[in-house]
Amino acid sequence: MGLPASSCTRSLLPDLAEKLRQPFLIQGKEIPFRTALAPMAGIGHVAFRHWVRHFGGCGLLFTEMCNARALPHENPALSEVFRWQPEELESLICQIFGEDPDLMARAAIRIEKEGFFGVDLNFGCSVAAICKQGGGAALLRNPDKALVIVEKVRKAIRIPLSVKFRTGWDDNVKNAVDLARKLETAGCDLITFHPRVAPDRRNRPPRWDHIQKIKEAVSIPVLGNGNIFTAEDGLRMLEETGCDGLSIGRMAAARPWIFADLTGQLSEEPDTAALLLSMHAGYCRHYGELRGLRLFKKILPYVMAVYPFGHRMHAHIRAASHGEDLHMRIREAFATNPRPNAAPNGNLMV
């Protein structure tokens, strides 16, 4: 199984798979699975998405954050984040960040012209470098501007428009509920909600009850996001919050086959070491040896988080200086065929 195995997880998978295989609509377009790859900086690029698509079971894919100011002039052959394969466009949403409504609209027009399924506006990233520019979660302090951005983008494009946002800069969910209603009125077709306050760097658990409040406030689909590590987590989020689907990030980085597993599409769990070797080769094909190795190392802490002594395995593999060395270290780390723990190590799931 794609998640750390337990008898409880095995017994719950059929129930969860049945729920996740129920199609739903976004702007009249049918999505075959109620699952989404959450946007992740440095991870959710074209080389990684290839493997998620390879295994299947993922209804929607999201790019990494793309700077709206740069995107209208980006060259996909050179850009690390604004790059894709033609076959993924039918389910791929491009996420952009910025604070200028006109620039956000201009970027959205480029995304639509390239044939993406949709545009996603990031109102949730709390990284200082993004917030200092007025983008990401900084817009939750200025909801009026956030709504102007949504309205401008909505007028500029016809493809689906989604927004990912957090509870806010404090734990007052009433503000988030009010914003969700206004986002729908402004033309948003899909919400991905991460129920944490913006300053929280995962040092506290997400408030899943806040997802329920957002779902109850709007009629458009809502994807729940935050701490979905096991099948038990996924089923509980769906049942407790009423959300329309699951947005999974860190466990997808650890196990690109998680969507296939949760939707009942996985026939056999892949060999992790062999998969890592193939993934590294794919990274290098897309980005060259140096960038490929750098990007590959970004997924390592997530992959190793589910293994006993994962810190030691991570340090050993990460020390590789070139591709041949990396492959040797991966084989050494997995030589004893380690079995995954029942839950990931939170210290590595940063």
TrEMBL record:
Its EC number is 1.3.1.-. Keywords: Flavoprotein, FMN, Oxidoreductase, tRNA processing. Residues 37-291 form the DUS-like FMN-binding domain. The keyword Protein transport does not apply. It holds the Pfam family Dus. Its cofactor is FMN. Belongs to the dus family. Catalyzes the synthesis of 5,6-dihydrouridine (D), a modified base found in the D-loop of most tRNAs, via the reduction of the C5-C6 double bond in target uridines. This is tRNA-dihydrouridine synthase. It comes from Desulfobotulus pelophilus.
